[in-house]
Amino acid sequence: MQDEARANKRYKANKRPNAAFLSPTVPRSAFFRAKVASAGVQPLQQRLQDRALIGHLRCFDLLSGLPLTALKEVAADTTLCTYRRGEFLWQRGDLAKHVVLIDSGFVKMTRRDRDGASKTYGLFGPGDSLGIFAFWAGMRYPSDAVALNRGVTLLVIDAIKLARLPERYPVLADRLQAGVIRFTEAFIDKIEIVSAGNIPQRLAMLMIQLVDRYGVNRSSEQAYLPLCLPLEQISEILGARIETVARCLAQWKRAGWLSTDAHGCHFTHLEKVRELLLNCNGDSVSRQS
Question: What is an example of a GO molecular function annotated in this UniProt entry (predicted)?
Fold first, then answer.
């Protein structure tokens, strides 16, 4: 018990927020058609030393606050995997047998419609967990999960063994339920984006959501988003033409609201972006389709 108390004390002192997780740049080529690793090219897997792995696991909300004995059990069934951009973590219809914790990089959840067009329903990054909803509901994965950059680092946990722990560690049941809610919220976020109004408002909703979840160096008016989304991906999320998205972003840059570099986006007037969601007919918002 004393060991667990000391371990929890160290955890509280060292816990890092989502902003502290690594966030590699996402290149344009990440959004080409996803590919499944061939039999001879599998995602890089390796085992971490137990102490290092437990330290990683403690950083995630899903497992934070668990006693050391529980973390050791989780660590025994956890593998560190690295995916290259465009590779599937899983495909729609695959058996849900893993819970995935994103340590670095970004993953998108997609499905193809009857015409074969890809639709993005959620973006997930450092600190997020995936796979809980499908496993908990006893269903197969409802969408594809695709790595967006060349070094997406994941902690992959055996879902069946994880599901046995809440009986002995009730706090984990609450965390798993929160994980299901978070996954549901990602789809609600998508609904909020497509129903926000005109294209500038949809773009504003998307960017505000991403800044709230992954933004760093935030203040009331400024933030840095360590994520580069190409026009093709943004247009897919918004349900808009690429040309329209380009015009909107160009307008923001000319107005001094936004600048970009090789690693992400600098927002210097977030209050202006938020105003778009409150003003459908203002001078700063032009109706585009």
Answer: DNA binding
Q: Minimal CA–CA distance to 88: which of 154, 26, 27?
A: 154
pLDDT tens string 62-101: 888 889 999 999 998 899 999 998 899 999 999 999 999 9
Unique residue bearing structure tokens 């585009």? 288
199-214 and 170-194 helices cross at what angle (nearest 10)? 160
Domains of the chain by start residue, with CATH: 2-186 (2.60.120.10), 196-276 (1.10.10.10)
Q: Report pLDDT digits (tens) over 266-283.
A: 999 999 999 998 854 444
- In this structure, how many other beta carbons lie within 10 angstroms of the beta carbon of residue 5? 11
Tell which phi-psi region holds residue 286, choosing left (phi > 0), alpha (psi between -120 and 50) or beta.
Answer: beta
**Per DSSP, what are the bridge partners of residue 267?**
223, 258
Which value, to the nearest 10 degrees, does the dihedral of the CA atoms of residues 189, 191, 194, 197 take?
A: -90
Cα(212)–Cα(39) distance, integer angstroms: 39
- For residue 116, the one-letter residue type is G
| Distance linking the first and last C-alpha atoms of the chain | 61
- Tokens 């849900």 sit on residue: 96
- Nearest Cα neighbor of 204 from 106, 92, 289, 279 is 279
Provide the token pair at 157: 């946990």
User: Two tokens at 36?
Assistant: 């499944």
Closest to 136 (Cα-Cα) out of 62, 83, 54, 71: 62
Beta bridge partners of 258: 267
CA distance 58 to 53: 9
